[in-house]
Design goal:
Radius of gyration: 23 Å
Structural class: alpha/beta
Strand content: 5-15%
Helix content: 10-25%
Shape: globular
Distance between the termini: 80 Å
Number of helices: 6
Number of domains: 1
Largest sheet: 5 strands, mixed
Strand order of the largest sheet: 4-1-2-6-7
C-alpha cells in the first residue's frame, strides 16, 4: 500500500506568512511602546505625588515651605552647591537615615557629604528618562522646583524660593528682593491649586566634542545663548514675551553651549541661588519642552541663572507632569498658552486662571 505524500510549504507561501507576521509586529510594536510609556508616565505622576506629600508634611512640621537652598556656615572649595529643597524633604520621602547623615553646615559637593550625594533616590527620577547619570556623582534629578515666572516680571515668584538673602551664606551674590523669604501656604495668594510647585526637566546630555544643534534630539538637554538682555523685576511683560519669542525662533542649526550639558540635574541634593539654579530648579519663561536659553546678561551661560529660560522638559509625548502646590498632579501640554504658563508659575501675581485653560 502506497503511503500518502505530505505536501510542504512553497517558497511563496512561506514569504507570505513571514510578511503577515512582520505586518502584525509592526502594528503591535507601537501599541506596546505606548502601553509602556503610559506605565512610565503613571509612575512619574506617583513620584510627583510623593514629593508633594513630603512638602505638605514639611509644612505641617515647620509652618513654612522648604527653601530652595539652605544657608550654611562653612565655605569649602565648592561653595556654590549648598543643600537644596530635596535634602530638606528626605524625612517625608522615608529617608530619615539619609537626612540624619547629611552634614548641613557644608555643601552637597563637599567630601563631608559624599555618602549622601552619591546615593540615588528613585523617587526623584522619571522612569521615562533615558540618559545615564554623569560619572560623578552617578546620580540624577528629574524633578525641579518652580522658581517662578519670567525674571522680567519678578524673580523668585514661585512657591519654592530662597530664604532671606544672607551675604555670608549660600546665596551670596544672588538676587535679593521681597520674594526671598521663608513663607507658608498663606503666601500663595494665586491659589495652591493654580500654582505649580514642581515639574520635570531632562538631565544634561554630558560633555561632548561634537556640536549639538537646536534641531537635534539632545537640544532640550543644553543651553542656547542669545543676545537678548533681560531686566529682572522690571515688570516688563513685553520684554518677557520678546525673550520667549527669541528663544522659540532660534534656528535649528544653532550650536548649544556644550559645557551646560553636564549640569542639568547634576547634584540631586543641592541647589544654589547665584549661578546654578538650573541644577535643581526651572522657571515658567519658555513653554514646556521648548529650548532652555540664556540671556545676554546671564550670570553664567554654563550653569543657568535666574535671568535665563530654564525650561521644563520631559520624554512624555506632548507635555510634562506638574505637581501643584496643593499636592495634585496635572499633565501640562506643550501647547499651553504663554500667558497661562506664566500665570500658573507664580504664587503672588494675582492672576486669575481657569482650570480648563491648562
Amino acid at each position: 500500500m502506497r503511503g500518502r505524500l505530505r505536501r510542504g510549504f512553497t517558497l511563496i507561501e512561506l514569504l507570505v506568512v513571514i510578511a503577515i507576521i512582520a505586518v502584525l509586529i509592526a502594528l503591535l510594536l507601537p501599541a506596546v511602546q505606548s502601553a509602556r510609556e503610559a506605565a512610565r508616565r503613571s509612575q512619574c505622576v506617583n513620584n510627583l505625588k510623593q514629593i508633594g506629600l513630603a512638602v505638605h508634611n514639611y509644612v505641617s512640621q515647620q509652618n513654612v515651605l522648604p527653601p530652595f537652598a539652605q544657608n550654611y556656615t562653612n565655605v569649602g572649595p565648592w561653595q556654590a552647591w549648598p543643600m537644596g529643597w530635596s535634602a530638606s524633604l528626605l524625612p517625608g520621602l522615608e529617608q530619615t537615615n539619609m537626612y540624619n547623615a547629611t552634614n548641613w553646615v557644608w555643601g552637597a559637593w563637599e567630601q563631608m557629604n559624599y555618602t549622601v550625594t552619591k546615593s540615588q533616590l528613585n523617587v526623584l527620577v522619571c522612569p521615562s528618562e533615558n540618559m545615564p547619570p554623569p560619572a560623578w556623582p552617578n546620580t540624577k534629578l528629574n524633578y525641579m522646583a518652580n522658581l517662578g515666572g519670567p525674571a522680567s516680571l519678578g524673580v523668585w515668584s514661585g512657591p519654592i524660593a530662597p530664604m532671606k538673602h544672607d551675604p555670608n551664606g549660600s546665596d551670596s551674590g544672588g538676587p535679593t528682593n521681597s520674594n526671598c523669604a521663608s513663607f507658608g501656604f498663606e503666601s500663595v495668594i494665586d491659589g495652591t491649586s493654580n500654582t505649580v510647585m514642581f515639574s520635570e526637566k531632562l538631565v544634561g546630555g554630558g560633555l561632548r566634542t561634537a556640536p549639538v544643534t537646536s534641531g537635534s534630539n539632545l537640544a532640550k538637554r543644553y543651553f542656547f545663548n542669545t543676545s537678548f538682555t533681560v531686566n529682572g523685576d522690571s515688570g516688563n511683560a513685553a520684554q518677557a514675551l520678546q525673550f520667549v519669542q527669541t528663544c522659540k525662533s532660534i534656528p535649528a542649526t544653532l550650536t548649544a553651549n556644550l559645557n551646560s550639558g553636564q549640569y542639568f540635574g547634576f547634584l540631586w541634593n543641592s541647589a544654589a541661588c547665584n549661578t546654578n539654579e538650573n541644577n535643581s530648579g526651572y522657571n515658567h519663561t519658555n513653554t514646556p519642552n521648548g529650548l532652555s536659553c540664556t540671556a545676554a546678561n546671564t550670570q553664567n551661560a554654563d550653569l543657568g541663572g535666574y535671568m535665563d529660560a530654564l525650561t521644563a522638559t520631559s520624554n512624555h509625548p506632548g507635555g510634562v507632569n506638574a505637581c501643584m502646590t496643593d499636592g495634585s498632579v496635572r499633565f501640562i501640554k506643550d501647547t499651553i498658552s504663554i500667558p497661562t504658563w506664566w500665570a500658573i508659575g507664580t504664587r503672588n501675581q494675582g492672576e486669575v486662571v481657569s482650570a480648563d485653560s491648562y
